[in-house]
Design a protein that fits this description.
Distance between the termini: 34 Å
Number of helices: 10
Largest sheet: 7 strands, antiparallel
Order of helices and strands: EEHEEEEHHHHEEHEHEEEEEEEHHHE
Number of strands: 17
Radius of gyration: 21 Å
Length: 398
């Protein structure tokens, strides 16, 4: 862990679980801007996969007192991971992996698409009872309600994915990455813009306008946290809904009618979210943007890329990271740069042995665009312990 502190420009230090020289200049500037805010508590924690993001840095953990920065959670509220260890026979799964992939692609909409048919579990989700109380979308409730219902149980795009993996003992795992879809994005953008406008009205100048914030005594603060919690619950349920469908598909593909896929171990965790927690003897608000809660005993998921290993971990409860760890490998280049640098042949080589699309639509997700997951894991040995190492045999990208 390395400490970055500029007495002239920072209110608190930055504690980074990576070499300072490996933090891109734009991300380092963001971290320093965040550390300059007067309400940031103790220090800013930068995870080993830290990289540039909108406003707050991806891979940052920020503790605040009496204020919240909407951009420190980001626009994909509640984005996270779910993984299930199963009793499936790896040989049978490998034999049918192409068929399984096509079956899942029929069941789970990807990209901007939603579901044409609404399942009972989606229709009866308890969260719909409080949908009308979401503050940010008062003028859009009807259209967004329809859209949100259709998209509960859909993957989304970008770096979201569904994978079937094998661990080192050939146990079959199902793993997925997704968030709150369009509803979370709409809510986040409305609140981020509202915070920017509020700063202008109050004549508060920030190093970065995207770090605009709400203070605890305001209505805006209360409304944001309410909306945030609703979107986090939606994202959590979205992963549950997809996992249920995937397991049902695999069960039918392998067993037809009589077999049952058992869930031996299950993990479902956010990595873009906020929560009230107790650190260094005080109650604070923690925002994790591209970071996973890693209190002692907490289970988490740290994925690599579509051609590299992923890890199921148990938290060690390190107080200096605010009991957090990385959320993945982290990008080392933009999507545009990845498309410029790599070819389809590169993609095929780097995803060899993985049943997945190998075309221009996923070229920006090539493993070479990401940091070395083994180096990321080595840098956080004091944050988590590995309980399972996974390697995908199938990957569906959003």
């Amino acid at each position: 862990m390395n400490i970055i502190y500029d007495e002239e420009n920072q209110n608190v230090p930055i504690k980074a679980w990576t070499q300072i020289s490996k933090i891109e200049e734009s991300a380092l500037k963001q971290l320093k801007n965040t550390a300059s805010l007067p309400f940031v508590f103790k220090h800013v924690a930068a995870m080993p996969d830290v990289h540039f993001g909108l406003g707050a840095t991806v891979g940052s953990v920020i503790a605040t007192k009496n204020a919240v920065i909407p951009a420190a959670v980001g626009v994909d509220i509640g984005c996270g991971m779910m993984a299930v260890k199963t009793n499936l026979n790896h040989k049978i799964v490998q034999d049918k992996v192409k068929e399984i992939r096509h079956s899942i692609e029929r069941s789970i909409p990807v990209g901007h698409r939603g579901n044409n048919k609404i399942t009972d579990s989606v229709e009866k989700w308890s969260g719909w009872k409080s949908f009308e109380s979401i503050n940010a979308i008062k003028n859009y409730k009807r259209d967004l309600k329809i859209s949100s219902v259709e998209k509960l149980g859909s993957l989304g795009g970008g770096n979201h994915f569904i994978e079937i993996c094998l661990d080192t003992e050939n146990n079959v795992w199902i793993m997925l990455h997704s968030g709150s879809r369009n509803i979370g994005k709409c809510v986040a953008e409305i609140h981020i813009n509202k915070a920017r406008d509020l700063m202008k009205k109050m004549l508060i100048e920030l190093h970065d306008p995207d770090l605009a914030y709400f203070t605890e005594q305001t209505l805006e603060y209360k409304e944001y946290l309410y909306d945030l919690e609703w979107c986090q619950q939606y994202a959590f349920q979205n992963r549950i809904e997809m996992m249920s469908r995937i397991i049902k598909d695999i069960s039918f593909m392998i067993y037809k009618e009589n077999g049952k896929v058992e869930r031996i171990l299950e993990v479902n965790c956010h990595h873009n979210y906020a929560s009230r927690e107790y650190h260094y003897g005080e109650n604070v608000l923690i925002t994790r943007k591209g970071a996973v809660k890693a209190s002692k005993g907490d289970l988490g998921i740290i994925p690599g890329s579509m051609g590299t290993r992923s890890y199921i971990v148990r938290g060690l409860g390190n107080p200096e990271s605010f009991m957090s760890c990385s959320h993945g490998a982290g990008r080392i280049m933009s999507r545009t740069k990845a498309k410029e640098k790599f070819t389809i042949d590169d993609l095929k080589k780097q995803t060899e042995g993985v049943e997945c699309r190998k075309d221009s639509s996923v070229l920006d997700e090539i493993p070479g665009a990401y940091k070395d997951i083994d180096e990321v894991m080595a840098n956080q040995k004091d944050l988590v312990e590995v309980i399972a190492q996974l390697k995908q045999i199938m990957c569906i990208k959003g």
